[in-house]
Design goal:
By secondary structure, the chain is an alpha/beta fold. The protein is about 45% helix and about 15% strand. Strand 6, helix 7 and strand 7 form a beta-alpha-beta unit.
Protein backbone atom coordinates (compact mmCIF):
# COMPACT_ATOMS: atom_id res chain seq x y z
CA UNK A 1 0.00 0.00 0.00
CA UNK A 2 1.25 3.49 -0.86
CA UNK A 3 1.38 5.85 2.12
CA UNK A 4 -0.99 8.83 2.07
CA UNK A 5 -0.56 12.16 3.80
CA UNK A 6 -3.90 13.24 5.28
CA UNK A 7 -2.04 16.43 6.28
CA UNK A 8 1.47 17.44 5.28
CA UNK A 9 3.32 20.27 6.99
CA UNK A 10 4.34 23.28 4.87
CA UNK A 11 7.43 23.80 7.06
CA UNK A 12 10.12 21.68 8.68
CA UNK A 13 12.01 22.01 11.96
CA UNK A 14 14.86 23.58 9.97
CA UNK A 15 12.79 26.31 8.31
CA UNK A 16 14.02 29.14 10.52
CA UNK A 17 17.59 27.88 11.04
CA UNK A 18 19.37 30.48 8.89
CA UNK A 19 17.76 33.48 10.55
CA UNK A 20 18.29 31.99 14.02
CA UNK A 21 21.96 31.25 13.32
CA UNK A 22 22.64 34.87 12.33
CA UNK A 23 21.00 36.20 15.50
CA UNK A 24 22.85 33.79 17.78
CA UNK A 25 26.22 34.45 16.13
CA UNK A 26 25.80 38.18 16.73
CA UNK A 27 24.84 37.64 20.36
CA UNK A 28 27.77 35.30 21.01
CA UNK A 29 30.17 37.76 19.40
CA UNK A 30 28.81 40.48 21.68
CA UNK A 31 29.18 38.38 24.84
CA UNK A 32 32.67 37.19 23.93
CA UNK A 33 33.94 40.76 24.22
CA UNK A 34 31.53 42.22 26.80
CA UNK A 35 31.60 39.13 29.05
CA UNK A 36 29.56 39.37 32.29
CA UNK A 37 28.29 42.87 31.54
CA UNK A 38 27.07 41.68 28.16
CA UNK A 39 25.07 38.91 29.83
CA UNK A 40 23.58 41.42 32.27
CA UNK A 41 22.68 43.92 29.54
CA UNK A 42 21.09 41.31 27.30
CA UNK A 43 19.13 39.88 30.22
CA UNK A 44 17.72 43.33 30.94
CA UNK A 45 16.84 43.76 27.27
CA UNK A 46 15.20 40.40 26.60
CA UNK A 47 13.97 39.25 30.03
CA UNK A 48 13.38 42.67 31.67
CA UNK A 49 15.33 41.44 34.71
CA UNK A 50 17.98 43.46 36.53
CA UNK A 51 18.44 41.51 39.77
CA UNK A 52 21.27 39.23 40.93
CA UNK A 53 22.54 36.76 38.36
CA UNK A 54 23.90 34.18 40.81
CA UNK A 55 21.14 32.69 42.97
CA UNK A 56 22.19 33.00 46.61
CA UNK A 57 21.85 30.29 49.24
CA UNK A 58 19.55 32.66 51.13
CA UNK A 59 17.23 32.92 48.12
CA UNK A 60 17.10 29.13 47.81
CA UNK A 61 16.24 28.74 51.50
CA UNK A 62 13.54 31.40 51.18
CA UNK A 63 11.93 29.53 48.28
CA UNK A 64 12.04 26.27 50.23
CA UNK A 65 10.08 27.85 53.07
CA UNK A 66 7.47 29.51 50.85
CA UNK A 67 6.79 26.71 48.35
CA UNK A 68 3.69 24.67 49.17
CA UNK A 69 4.24 21.08 50.24
CA UNK A 70 2.19 19.54 47.42
CA UNK A 71 4.42 21.14 44.81
CA UNK A 72 7.51 19.91 46.63
CA UNK A 73 6.03 16.41 46.80
CA UNK A 74 5.35 16.39 43.05
CA UNK A 75 8.88 17.56 42.25
CA UNK A 76 10.20 14.85 44.58
CA UNK A 77 8.01 12.28 42.77
CA UNK A 78 9.63 13.24 39.45
CA UNK A 79 13.14 13.38 40.93
CA UNK A 80 12.88 9.92 42.52
CA UNK A 81 11.97 8.22 39.26
CA UNK A 82 14.42 10.12 37.07
CA UNK A 83 17.23 9.41 39.52
CA UNK A 84 16.33 5.73 39.79
CA UNK A 85 16.33 5.41 36.01
CA UNK A 86 19.64 7.25 35.69
CA UNK A 87 21.18 4.95 38.30
CA UNK A 88 19.92 1.93 36.35
CA UNK A 89 21.44 3.35 33.17
CA UNK A 90 24.79 3.75 34.89
CA UNK A 91 24.63 0.23 36.31
CA UNK A 92 23.66 -1.21 32.92
CA UNK A 93 25.86 1.05 30.80
CA UNK A 94 26.27 -0.34 27.32
CA UNK A 95 23.46 -2.88 27.44
CA UNK A 96 19.70 -3.25 27.12
CA UNK A 97 17.63 -3.29 30.31
CA UNK A 98 14.20 -2.72 31.79
CA UNK A 99 13.39 -1.72 35.38
CA UNK A 100 10.20 -1.18 37.40
CA UNK A 101 10.53 2.37 38.72
CA UNK A 102 7.38 2.12 40.83
CA UNK A 103 4.41 -0.22 40.87
CA UNK A 104 3.22 -0.67 37.30
CA UNK A 105 5.68 1.83 35.78
CA UNK A 106 8.42 0.19 33.71
CA UNK A 107 11.24 1.95 31.86
CA UNK A 108 14.31 0.80 30.01
CA UNK A 109 16.67 1.30 27.14
CA UNK A 110 17.60 -0.38 23.87
CA UNK A 111 20.94 0.00 22.12
CA UNK A 112 20.55 0.23 18.35
CA UNK A 113 23.36 0.96 15.88
CA UNK A 114 22.85 3.70 13.31
CA UNK A 115 22.01 2.48 9.83
CA UNK A 116 24.66 4.36 7.82
CA UNK A 117 28.06 5.72 8.87
CA UNK A 118 30.31 7.91 6.76
CA UNK A 119 34.02 7.43 7.42
CA UNK A 120 36.45 10.10 6.22
CA UNK A 121 40.00 8.88 5.64
CA UNK A 122 42.60 11.63 5.07
CA UNK A 123 44.91 11.17 2.13
CA UNK A 124 46.41 14.58 1.37
CA UNK A 125 49.85 15.19 2.88
CA UNK A 126 50.10 11.61 4.13
CA UNK A 127 48.19 8.39 3.37
CA UNK A 128 46.43 7.77 6.69
CA UNK A 129 45.91 4.03 6.34
CA UNK A 130 45.32 3.62 10.07
CA UNK A 131 42.40 6.06 9.96
CA UNK A 132 40.54 3.63 7.71
CA UNK A 133 41.16 0.87 10.25
CA UNK A 134 40.07 3.02 13.20
CA UNK A 135 36.83 4.29 11.68
CA UNK A 136 35.52 1.50 9.44
CA UNK A 137 36.40 -1.35 11.79
CA UNK A 138 34.82 0.31 14.81
CA UNK A 139 31.62 1.07 12.88
CA UNK A 140 31.30 -2.51 11.68
CA UNK A 141 31.94 -3.98 15.13
CA UNK A 142 29.22 -1.67 16.48
CA UNK A 143 26.80 -3.26 14.03
CA UNK A 144 26.43 -0.50 11.44
CA UNK A 145 24.78 -2.04 8.38
CA UNK A 146 26.06 0.42 5.77
CA UNK A 147 29.53 2.00 5.97
CA UNK A 148 30.67 4.53 3.35
CA UNK A 149 34.36 5.44 3.22
CA UNK A 150 35.69 8.54 1.45
CA UNK A 151 39.32 9.43 0.77
CA UNK A 152 40.87 12.18 -1.39
CA UNK A 153 41.90 11.04 -4.88
CA UNK A 154 45.23 11.71 -6.60
CA UNK A 155 45.40 12.64 -10.26
CA UNK A 156 45.17 9.55 -12.46
CA UNK A 157 45.04 7.22 -9.45
CA UNK A 158 42.06 7.95 -7.22
CA UNK A 159 42.28 7.30 -3.51
CA UNK A 160 45.52 5.81 -2.23
CA UNK A 161 45.50 2.09 -3.18
CA UNK A 162 46.43 0.95 0.32
CA UNK A 163 43.63 3.03 1.82
CA UNK A 164 41.19 1.38 -0.59
CA UNK A 165 42.54 -2.06 0.33
CA UNK A 166 42.30 -1.28 4.05
CA UNK A 167 38.78 0.15 3.90
CA UNK A 168 37.61 -2.92 2.00
CA UNK A 169 39.36 -5.29 4.42
CA UNK A 170 37.72 -3.57 7.38
CA UNK A 171 34.25 -3.91 5.89
CA UNK A 172 33.43 -0.68 4.04
CA UNK A 173 30.36 -1.26 1.88
CA UNK A 174 31.03 1.69 -0.44
CA UNK A 175 34.34 3.46 -1.12
CA UNK A 176 34.35 6.87 -2.83
CA UNK A 177 37.20 8.78 -4.47
CA UNK A 178 36.24 12.01 -2.74
CA UNK A 179 38.00 14.29 -0.29
CA UNK A 180 37.49 17.55 1.57
CA UNK A 181 34.13 19.32 1.63
CA UNK A 182 32.70 17.33 -1.33
CA UNK A 183 33.24 14.09 0.61
CA UNK A 184 31.50 15.39 3.72
CA UNK A 185 28.61 16.78 1.66
CA UNK A 186 28.23 13.60 -0.39
CA UNK A 187 28.01 11.39 2.68
CA UNK A 188 25.63 13.77 4.47
CA UNK A 189 23.23 14.25 1.56
CA UNK A 190 23.32 10.66 0.28
CA UNK A 191 24.86 11.44 -3.12
CA UNK A 192 26.01 8.89 -5.71
CA UNK A 193 22.99 6.66 -4.97
CA UNK A 194 23.96 6.09 -1.33
CA UNK A 195 21.88 6.41 1.81
CA UNK A 196 22.48 9.66 3.73
CA UNK A 197 24.89 9.11 6.61
CA UNK A 198 23.48 9.13 10.13
CA UNK A 199 26.92 9.93 11.55
CA UNK A 200 30.23 11.17 10.12
CA UNK A 201 33.52 10.13 11.68
CA UNK A 202 37.22 10.47 10.97
CA UNK A 203 39.94 13.12 11.10
CA UNK A 204 40.59 15.69 8.40
CA UNK A 205 42.00 19.13 7.70
CA UNK A 206 40.39 22.37 8.85
CA UNK A 207 37.99 22.39 5.89
CA UNK A 208 36.75 18.89 6.66
CA UNK A 209 36.37 19.81 10.33
CA UNK A 210 34.43 22.98 9.50
CA UNK A 211 32.13 21.14 7.09
CA UNK A 212 31.33 18.63 9.83
CA UNK A 213 30.72 21.44 12.31
CA UNK A 214 28.33 23.25 9.97
CA UNK A 215 26.41 20.08 9.13
CA UNK A 216 26.22 18.85 12.73
CA UNK A 217 22.56 18.48 13.59
CA UNK A 218 21.58 17.35 10.14
CA UNK A 219 24.05 14.54 10.65
CA UNK A 220 25.78 13.26 13.76
CA UNK A 221 29.54 13.63 14.08
CA UNK A 222 32.18 11.95 16.19
CA UNK A 223 33.69 15.19 17.53
CA UNK A 224 34.88 18.66 16.54
CA UNK A 225 38.44 17.83 15.57
CA UNK A 226 41.34 20.23 15.29
CA UNK A 227 45.07 19.76 14.66
CA UNK A 228 46.55 16.77 16.45
CA UNK A 229 48.23 17.35 19.83
CA UNK A 230 50.77 15.67 22.08
CA UNK A 231 51.63 16.38 25.70
CA UNK A 232 54.25 14.63 27.82
CA UNK A 233 54.49 14.62 31.60
CA UNK A 234 58.06 13.92 32.68
CA UNK A 235 60.08 14.00 35.88
CA UNK A 236 63.84 13.76 36.44
CA UNK A 237 63.83 10.00 35.75
CA UNK A 238 62.60 10.44 32.18
CA UNK A 239 64.81 10.02 29.11
CA UNK A 240 65.10 13.39 27.30
CA UNK A 241 65.99 11.63 24.04
CA UNK A 242 62.76 9.61 24.08
CA UNK A 243 60.78 12.74 24.94
CA UNK A 244 62.30 14.75 22.11
CA UNK A 245 61.64 12.01 19.55
CA UNK A 246 58.01 11.68 20.68
CA UNK A 247 57.36 15.44 20.49
CA UNK A 248 58.80 15.58 16.98
CA UNK A 249 56.82 12.48 16.03
CA UNK A 250 53.56 14.40 16.43
CA UNK A 251 54.82 17.78 15.23
CA UNK A 252 55.33 16.36 11.73
CA UNK A 253 51.54 16.11 11.31
CA UNK A 254 51.27 19.74 10.29
CA UNK A 255 52.31 23.33 10.83
CA UNK A 256 49.69 23.84 13.55
CA UNK A 257 50.13 20.66 15.62
CA UNK A 258 50.85 21.53 19.28
CA UNK A 259 53.57 19.66 21.19
CA UNK A 260 53.76 20.29 24.95
CA UNK A 261 56.11 19.12 27.70
CA UNK A 262 55.29 19.49 31.39
CA UNK A 263 58.24 18.65 33.62
CA UNK A 264 59.59 19.12 37.13
CA UNK A 265 63.18 18.84 35.89
CA UNK A 266 64.99 21.90 34.59
CA UNK A 267 67.68 19.61 33.18
CA UNK A 268 65.12 17.63 31.17
CA UNK A 269 63.57 20.87 29.92
CA UNK A 270 66.91 22.24 28.74
CA UNK A 271 67.98 19.01 27.02
CA UNK A 272 64.66 18.65 25.19
CA UNK A 273 64.70 22.30 24.15
CA UNK A 274 68.10 21.74 22.53
CA UNK A 275 67.37 18.32 21.06
CA UNK A 276 64.01 18.88 19.33
CA UNK A 277 65.33 21.29 16.65
CA UNK A 278 68.24 18.92 15.99
CA UNK A 279 65.89 16.01 15.35
CA UNK A 280 63.62 18.10 13.16
CA UNK A 281 66.55 19.21 11.02
CA UNK A 282 67.31 15.58 10.13
CA UNK A 283 63.80 14.78 8.82
CA UNK A 284 62.92 14.50 5.10
CA UNK A 285 61.67 17.75 3.58
CA UNK A 286 57.88 17.38 3.97
CA UNK A 287 57.78 16.34 7.64
CA UNK A 288 60.68 18.71 8.41
CA UNK A 289 58.79 21.76 7.11
CA UNK A 290 55.68 20.80 9.07
CA UNK A 291 57.55 20.01 12.29
CA UNK A 292 59.65 23.19 12.16
CA UNK A 293 56.58 25.39 11.92
CA UNK A 294 54.65 23.42 14.55
CA UNK A 295 57.47 23.53 17.10
CA UNK A 296 58.18 27.21 16.45
CA UNK A 297 54.58 28.39 16.80
CA UNK A 298 52.87 25.74 18.93
CA UNK A 299 55.60 23.99 20.95
CA UNK A 300 55.79 24.59 24.71
CA UNK A 301 57.97 23.42 27.60
CA UNK A 302 56.49 24.17 31.02
CA UNK A 303 58.59 23.78 34.18
CA UNK A 304 56.57 22.84 37.28
CA UNK A 305 57.48 22.44 40.96
CA UNK A 306 55.45 19.32 41.79
CA UNK A 307 53.67 16.32 40.31
CA UNK A 308 50.36 17.94 41.28
CA UNK A 309 51.25 21.05 39.28
CA UNK A 310 52.04 18.92 36.23
CA UNK A 311 48.72 17.08 36.58
CA UNK A 312 46.83 20.35 37.01
CA UNK A 313 48.35 22.04 33.95
CA UNK A 314 47.80 18.88 31.91
CA UNK A 315 44.11 18.76 32.83
CA UNK A 316 43.81 22.45 31.90
CA UNK A 317 45.29 21.80 28.45
CA UNK A 318 43.22 18.57 28.10
CA UNK A 319 45.54 17.17 25.39
CA UNK A 320 44.52 14.75 22.68
CA UNK A 321 47.47 12.41 23.35
CA UNK A 322 49.14 12.35 26.75
CA UNK A 323 52.29 10.43 27.63
CA UNK A 324 53.43 9.85 31.22
CA UNK A 325 57.16 9.30 31.66
CA UNK A 326 57.63 9.45 35.42
CA UNK A 327 58.55 7.20 38.34
CA UNK A 328 55.03 7.61 39.78
CA UNK A 329 52.96 6.21 36.91
CA UNK A 330 50.06 4.83 38.96
CA UNK A 331 49.52 8.13 40.77
CA UNK A 332 49.23 10.04 37.50
CA UNK A 333 46.94 7.39 36.00
CA UNK A 334 44.53 7.79 38.93
CA UNK A 335 44.86 11.58 39.15
CA UNK A 336 44.53 12.70 35.53
CA UNK A 337 41.02 13.45 34.21
CA UNK A 338 41.28 15.18 30.82
CA UNK A 339 42.94 13.50 27.85
CA UNK A 340 41.95 11.76 24.64
CA UNK A 341 44.24 8.76 25.06
CA UNK A 342 46.83 8.02 27.74
CA UNK A 343 50.22 6.40 27.16
CA UNK A 344 51.66 5.11 30.45
CA UNK A 345 55.44 4.70 30.65
CA UNK A 346 58.17 5.28 28.09
CA UNK A 347 57.63 1.82 26.58
CA UNK A 348 54.53 3.05 24.76
CA UNK A 349 54.18 6.08 22.52
CA UNK A 350 51.56 7.98 20.54
CA UNK A 351 52.64 6.43 17.25
CA UNK A 352 51.74 2.97 18.55
CA UNK A 353 48.19 4.11 19.28
CA UNK A 354 48.05 6.04 16.03
CA UNK A 355 48.91 3.03 13.92
CA UNK A 356 48.29 -0.39 15.36
CA UNK A 357 48.29 -1.04 19.12
CA UNK A 358 44.50 -1.21 19.37
CA UNK A 359 43.16 1.97 20.96
CA UNK A 360 41.44 4.37 18.60
CA UNK A 361 43.35 7.40 17.26
CA UNK A 362 40.28 9.48 16.39
CA UNK A 363 40.38 11.62 19.52
CA UNK A 364 39.20 14.96 20.96
CA UNK A 365 41.40 18.03 20.42
CA UNK A 366 41.30 21.71 21.42
CA UNK A 367 40.39 20.87 25.00
CA UNK A 368 37.38 18.73 24.05
CA UNK A 369 38.56 15.88 26.28
CA UNK A 370 37.07 17.91 29.13
CA UNK A 371 33.67 16.59 28.00
CA UNK A 372 34.18 13.67 25.62
CA UNK A 373 36.38 10.75 24.80
CA UNK A 374 37.47 9.50 21.41
CA UNK A 375 35.83 7.30 18.81
CA UNK A 376 34.53 3.98 20.14
CA UNK A 377 31.74 1.58 19.31
CA UNK A 378 29.31 3.61 21.39
CA UNK A 379 29.55 6.56 18.99
CA UNK A 380 27.74 4.44 16.40
CA UNK A 381 25.08 3.17 18.80
CA UNK A 382 21.95 5.04 19.86
CA UNK A 383 20.84 4.56 23.46
CA UNK A 384 17.07 4.74 23.17
CA UNK A 385 14.77 4.82 26.19
CA UNK A 386 11.26 3.42 26.46
CA UNK A 387 8.52 3.11 29.08
CA UNK A 388 5.29 1.18 29.59
CA UNK A 389 2.67 1.40 32.32
CA UNK A 390 -0.31 -0.40 33.73
CA UNK A 391 -3.64 1.40 33.96
CA UNK A 392 -3.34 1.24 37.75
CA UNK A 393 -0.02 3.14 37.78
CA UNK A 394 -1.77 6.06 36.06
CA UNK A 395 -3.47 6.97 39.33
CA UNK A 396 -0.17 8.30 40.72
CA UNK A 397 1.87 9.09 37.60
CA UNK A 398 -0.95 10.72 35.61
CA UNK A 399 -2.02 12.93 38.47
CA UNK A 400 1.53 14.03 39.29
CA UNK A 401 2.29 14.71 35.62
CA UNK A 402 -0.88 16.80 35.27
CA UNK A 403 -0.07 18.89 38.34
CA UNK A 404 3.56 19.41 37.29
CA UNK A 405 2.39 20.47 33.82
CA UNK A 406 0.03 23.03 35.35
CA UNK A 407 2.79 24.36 37.61
CA UNK A 408 4.74 24.96 34.41
CA UNK A 409 1.79 26.57 32.66
CA UNK A 410 1.44 23.76 30.09
CA UNK A 411 -2.28 23.05 30.15
CA UNK A 412 -2.36 20.82 27.07
CA UNK A 413 0.24 18.59 28.67
CA UNK A 414 -1.84 18.38 31.82
CA UNK A 415 -4.92 17.31 29.89
CA UNK A 416 -3.12 14.31 28.39
CA UNK A 417 -2.93 13.04 31.96
CA UNK A 418 -6.49 14.06 32.74
CA UNK A 419 -7.96 12.16 29.80
CA UNK A 420 -6.32 8.92 30.94
CA UNK A 421 -7.23 9.45 34.58
CA UNK A 422 -10.84 9.92 33.49
CA UNK A 423 -10.87 6.92 31.14
CA UNK A 424 -9.40 4.59 33.77
CA UNK A 425 -11.78 5.80 36.48
CA UNK A 426 -9.46 7.93 38.60
CA UNK A 427 -10.90 11.32 37.70
CA UNK A 428 -14.59 12.05 38.15
Amino acid sequence: MTIQYFKKSPKTSSTDDTKTAEIVQDLLKNIKTSKEQGCIDLTKKFDKYDGDIIVSRERIDEIKKKLDQKTKDDVQFSYDRVRKFAEAQLKNYGQDFEIELSKGLYAGQKLIPVNTAGCYVPGGRYAHIASAVMSVTTAKVAGVKNVIACSPPKEGVGAHPTIIYTADLCGADIILNLGGVPAIAAMTYGLFNNSPADILVGPGNQFVAEAKRILFGKVGIDLFAGPTEIAIIADEKADPEIIAFDLVGQAEHGYNSPAWLYTTSKEIAEKVLKRVPELIAKLPELPRISAEAAWKDYGEIILCDTDEEMATISDEYAPEHLEIQTKNLDWFHKRLKNYGSLFIGEETTVAYGDKCSGTNHILPTKGASRYTGGLFVGKFIKTLSFQRMTKESTELVGAAAARLSRYEGMEAHARTGDVRLKKYGYLK
